[in-house]
Design a protein that fits this description.
By secondary structure, this protein is α/β, with parallel strands linked by helices. It has 17 helices and 13 strands. The chain folds into 2 domains: 231 residues, Rossmann fold (3-Layer(aba) Sandwich); 72 residues, no CATH class. It has a 6-stranded parallel sheet. A 3-stranded antiparallel sheet has the order 9-10-11, covered by helices on one side. The chain has a two-stranded antiparallel sheet with strand order 3-4. The protein is elongated and about 80 Å long. The two termini are 31 Å apart.
């Protein structure tokens, strides 16, 4: 199937996570994504777990893309890139601000080649300001956005997530920004530049902490797995050493939970009528809920909560996810045939469209697998390709 983004050509010249993942999301829905890699490869190929020397993270983030090696620091690479830009719709890059300009590939130069081009620039701190040229990764965004300060146990240190949270949020935001710019291009007839700082999307998703500080002078405390907005809300251990998460954001659910665990007396307390009031008595509520859960096995807990129409979920690992019937019903995990690793399971596309569904066309390809195929479109024959290989411009 072509997918709703068929006909959109994306040059993914970014590395590691935020920019490349945005391109992956576009590829999932039919965009032709040409992954432009340094001849040494995107660092994500060697990042994290590997099997037989093959990077597993790459297999997911490189899915649906054509891999082309091209050294943009060389004049021959820059000239080829200009040819590719001429019929591209989108370029995604995450070089340090000023790098593209130094190569003669800044937005003003690319716009002259292709006025309809959308250039998405994804960096830690954006294109302007005193930090713009600093090197940075999602970890710094998680620290500077306020996320780490409010995450962790009350008496413990600020805590970072064990995965690329800020990068992932920035990737989804970048894909949205690109689609917004393409829609504007349809209306106005010309492209534009997107300046996306990785620190900003996570700053927005953290909620009203800036407003609360501005209006009340409040800073959110670290509360561990508890919430300052409602209770009971925590992770609880079961009798068979499982873990379950309970949330009571709605008043009616909080009341059902307390009836279920045999403590309806709490419901009559004046403080129980609001989430903030319950959060102020989290220790008492946790004791009631936790003691009830700890006396029962995980399956019994889940069944009782479901019958009571109270919100609960088991704490899963990947081993649990691939066996869960709900994920199977949603087809959240898909099996693909990889030319290097054989059958491989990974997360499916983010959402389902009823009329124009997306599709994962292939897993992350070997480095440079499509170099000859793609560059042939731009006048590079076998002889020229040999010369470029010899010069180290392609691999």
């Amino acid at each position: 199937m072509d997918g709703p983004l068929a006909g959109i050509r994306v040059l993914d010249a970014a590395t590691l996570f935020a920019g490349p993942l945005a391109a992956t999301l576009l590829a999932d829905f039919g965009a032709e994504v040409i992954k432009i890699e340094h001849p040494g490869g995107d660092p994500v190929r060697s990042h994290g777990a590997q099997r037989d020397g093959v990077g597993l993270w790459w297999k997911m983030i490189g899915r649906g893309k054509r891999s082309v090696t091209l050294y943009l620091g060389a004049p021959q690479g820059q000239e080829l890139f200009r040819r590719m830009v001429a019929d591209a719709d989108v370029v995604i890059e995450n070089f340090r601000p000023g790098t593209l300009e130094r190569w003669g590939l800044g937005y003003s130069a690319l716009r002259e080649i292709n006025p309809r081009l959308v250039l998405a620039r994804v960096t830690a701190f954006g294109q302007v300001g005193p930090y713009a040229r600093r090197p940075g990764f999602g970890t710094l965004a998680e620290a500077m956005s306020g996320f780490a300060a409010m995450t962790g146990e009350p008496e413990g240190p600020p805590t970072l997530p064990p995965f690329g949270l800020a990068d992932g949020i920035a990737a989804v935001t970048t894909a949205f920004a690109i689609m917004t710019a393409l829609r504007a291009r349809d209306r106005d007839g010309h492209g534009q530049q997107i300046d996306l700082a990785i620190v900003e999307p996570i700053l927005t998703l953290l909620g009203p902490h800036i407003v609360a500080y501005d209006q009340l002078g409040q800073l959110p405390p670290r509360t561990g797995n508890r919430s300052s907005n409602n209770a009971p809300r925590n992770i609880y251990r079961t009798a068979d050493d499982g873990w379950v998460a309970v949330s009571t954001s709605a008043q009616s659910v909080a009341e059902r939970v307390m009836r279920l665990v045999g403590r309806p007396d709490f419901i009559a307390e004046p403080w129980f009528t609001t989430g903030a009031g319950r959060a102020g008595h989290a220790a008492e509520l946790d004791e009631a809920v936790g003691s009830w859960i700890s006396a029962r096995k995980t399956a019994e807990v889940l069944s009782a909560f479901e019958e009571a129409e109270a919100a609960v979920a088991p704490v899963y690992t990947a081993a649990d996810i691939v066996e869960d019937p709900q994920f199977r019903a949603l087809e959240s995990i898909i099996t693909l045939l990889d030319p290097e690793l054989g059958p491989i399971r990974m997360q499916n596309i983010l959402f389902r469209l009823s009329e124009t569904p997306g599709e994962i066309r292939w897993t992350g390809p070997p480095l440079g697998a499509h170099t000859a195929e793609v560059l042939s479109r731009y006048g590079v024959d076998e002889r020229a390709l040999t010369d470029l290989r010899a010069a180290g411009v392609v691999r």
